[in-house]
Structures are given as C-alpha cells and as structure tokens.
Amino acid sequence: MTNKDIARLFNKLASLMELHGANPYKTRSYSNAYIQLRKLSTPLSEMSDEEIGSIKGVGKSLASKIKEILETGSFVALNEFLEKTPVGVQEMLDIKGFGAKKIKTIWKELGTETLGELLYACNENRLVALNGFGHKTQKDLIKKIEYYLQSRDKFHYATLEASALELVKILQKKLPTATVELTGEIRRYCPILNKIEIIIGSDEAIDSIFDKKLTLLEQQENKYAVKIPTEYPTVIYHYPLSQFGSKQFSHTGSRAFLEGVVSLCEGVDFSNLSTEVAVFEKAGLPYIMPELRENAKILSKTTQRQPPALLEEKEIKGVIHSHTTYSDGINTLTEMAEYAQSLGYEYIVITDHSKAAFYANGLNPDRVLAQMEEIDALNEQLAPFKIYKGIESDILNDGSLDYEEDILARFDFIIASVHTNLKMDETKATERLLTAIKNPYTTMLGHPTGRLLLSREGYPIDHKAIIDACSEHQVAIELNANPYRLDLDWTWIEYAMSKNVKISINPDAHSTGGIHDIHFGVLAARKGGLTAEMCFNTMGSQELDEYIAAKKEGIL
Hints:
The structure is a single chain. By secondary structure, the chain is α/β, with parallel strands linked by helices. Helices cover 42% and strands 12% of the residues. The strands form three sheets. The protein has a seven-stranded parallel β-sheet with strand order 8-9-10-11-12-13-14. A five-stranded mixed β-sheet has the order 2-4-7-6-5. The chain has a two-stranded antiparallel sheet with strand order 1-3. Strand 13 (476-480), helix 20 (493-498) and strand 14 form a beta-alpha-beta unit. The protein starts with a helix and ends with a helix.
C-alpha cells in the first residue's frame, strides 16, 4: 500500500470516530496522522519500526497500527468502527463537502442509512426541518449525491496505469510468442476509467496464464473477466494473430470514432488484418494515435493530411507550478530545485501559495521577499539551472490578485488560481476569471474550473470567453497535471490552440515526487491534440527569460 493509501485509512477512522462522537483527542490524532503520512516521500513499507515511530504525529501507538496495515491491509480500530456503521452511511462520508456532523444528524434523526434513502429524503424536502440544513444546503447535497453515484466504481487513469502495465509485462513473460497490449479506454489515456483492458494476439491457448494471482472469473467466447492482486476490474481479450490488428482497432476506438470509420469506409472489410497499420491503410487514412480516437471529428481532419505530431514528455523543458515548505509543500526550496535539476529539467518555477491562502500557509510580503533572497543565492549555486520567482496568487471574489502592485511587480511568474468560493454561478465565476486574466501581472491561469475528478465537479465557466480573453491578454492556461485534476480539460485544447493560447503542463507539485505528475498531464494533453509548439513549457530557460521580459514590458 502507498503512503496515501495508509493515510486515507487513518482519515477514514477519524471521520467515523467523529460520526460516533468518540474521544475528540484520539480523533484529532488520526486526522493529524493523515496529514503527516500523505506528505512522506519515503514509502512506509521501506521504513523500520523506529523510523515510522519517529515521524511527527505518529509515535509508538500509531506506528503499530501502520505495521498492522502493511501486513493486513487494515487495522482493528478501524474495523471496529466499520462494523458498527451501516455501509450506506460510510458512503456518505465519501461525498466531498458533506461532513460527519451533518451525516450524524441525518442518520440519527431521520434514520437514513443509504444514499438512495438520503436522495429520496432530499427530494421530499425532509432535510429542511433539521438543524443546520436549509433549502440551499439540500439542493447542493442532491447535486453532490448524484455526482457521487455517477462516479462510483470508476477510477483515475493514474490509479490503474501501474497495475495495467505490470500485468502486460507478466503476460508477455507467460506468453513469449504472443502480442500483448493495452486496449480500450486505458489505451486512449482517458482520465477516468471503468476497468483495465488487455488484448492478446496468439494462435495458442492462453489457459496457462491463469493462476492464484491471475484468477479467471468468467469467460465469454474471446473475453475473459479476471481477478488481479490489486482487485481492479480487469478484462482480457484473446484473438488469433491474423486478427490482432482488426480487433485491437475495434476495441481501442470509442463507439463514435468506430461509427465514423464505418460511415467513411462503407462496405470495406476490416475483419482479418494482423496490424492496426493495415487497418488504417485499408481505410485510406493516415495512422491515428489511440488517444485521438475519441470521436469522429478527427477523421475529417486526417483524410487530407497527416495528423500533427503530438507533444512528448521528453519535450517538456521546465517544471512550472511547484510548492515548497514555505507554504504547504513537503520539500524545501533547495530540495525541489535540485530534484528538478536531477531529472534533466532546465528550470523550475516556484509558485507557493499567496497570502490569502491562510489554509495553506500562504506567504505574506515579508516571506515573499525572504524566499526571493534564497532563490537568488540558489541560482548562483545551481547555474545554469534556473529557479524563477513565482507565486500562485489567489483570485479573490472580485477577480483581483491578493498582493499590492509593488509586490506583484517583483515576481517573474504569476499563476492566478481560484481556491475559495467555488459556488458562484457561471456568469459570476466567468467574470471573476476574466478580471484576473486582464490583470497585467497574470502570466498564467491555473486549474480553470477547480475540479477534482470523481470528487468535485468544477465550477461552471464560459470556456470560450475565458480562452478568448487569454488570447487577447497573452495569458497561458495551465493543464494541471495532477491526475485528480487534469484541468483544463483536454476537450478545450483544440479551441485554445486555434486562438493561439499556449497550454502549460504543470504538475502542481507539493513534493519532489509530485513533479512526476507531468507524465499524466502530457497524456491528457495528447488526447486534446497538443503539439510541442503550443505547449508553454517546451520553452527552454533562455526563451522563457525573453518571454518574461517581453511580458513585463507589455510587448508580447
């Protein structure tokens, strides 16, 4: 289990304890452990008992529970609370922004123990009579329940990727003469997945692949439902090598894409082709990368010309959007810079939280200046690697940035982001962003909708108006590469490029390990057709220096 997996179990126990009115001091200790453990860069599974016990906020008692989790996947204290809490009430705790106190009121006063019952109670206006609830709260809760139900049993791409790639390797070893590849949504790099899908091309039987670690659950002709150690839903398809290309093509593309091909190539038989290249050749089309096979629109663009070369991870030159211990990051400024340098990047833009972000230890002006002094000293040590002086400035309710002009002018780089008051309607939310975009000090718009995939819907904005304004004011847009955000959504990249607005693949790294999320951002960007030319941080440090100077002088 990862550190975050373990931390979540402690957070779950804290929520359950609050729900049951348990000792508040013990409850707080589990909440604190959650905060500390999820920040660790060293895997708990690789640490000794002594090292775990010495972690701030852990101690011997929680260290023993961590050991228990590593050995069994859970721990007694959590199991005791799970046993006395209805499953439906446990699910309520998973709804973002719906706290234990409100859940306790609903459970104890209404006797509501399932999400279905809760949704019904909301539609019958039964919550309004409860203390702490009102029509607005009830309406908001209906939306949250519906979103949760729609998201249930789905997974972030990043959650399944490692297990899927490992399974491909295992199958290749078991079937050395076979062709084994990912297929379906995971091959298209969809941000949200239902399952892992793998296709095997082999003229031999595949019975030998099944064992205690790869258990066959059900077989229907060429389709095998299997159980893997991580227990993520997994399907394997098996076809003869002579059909592999045809079947890989049909399993990979979305229904809309495949229907578009059929319409374009009426009467053409694609059923027995050994490679996908042969399928595209027979269709009279250039090869279309799997991630672009999401809809039929791509077909009209490629019948006359080759699709553009998509952005590659190796083309990213610098790390933009990173946090340090100055605000809510895990690693120091030096550690973040040196790690980025060790990965081969030319620069890092440090963008700790601004002063309005009190919840994230945001920097007041004095601390901003202190950090800038440290950056100057480090730049002398690490040259030619460069650290840029940036900030993630909170966009206030009126769209203004949260520093005076004399401080804003000192930054090399300002990412303007919304973190609070996420319940504005589309008109107000859009106007708020437009005001921030028009600010001459704004370099880039951060995670435009504030969404958290499978957890929180983004606030509504007029994407076209926002992108048009970024084009007018020479403001880049972030594709936040954190796999739980991936915001700007890939579906808006094409429009942004048409308006000459560059997209920056930003990890929003709160630790050295977070820098690696650039990988997921690049995959999402490729779905949107992003090219290296239209990616902001394919600029090297010298080109970025020139860009920053031109931006400050207003001559972009």
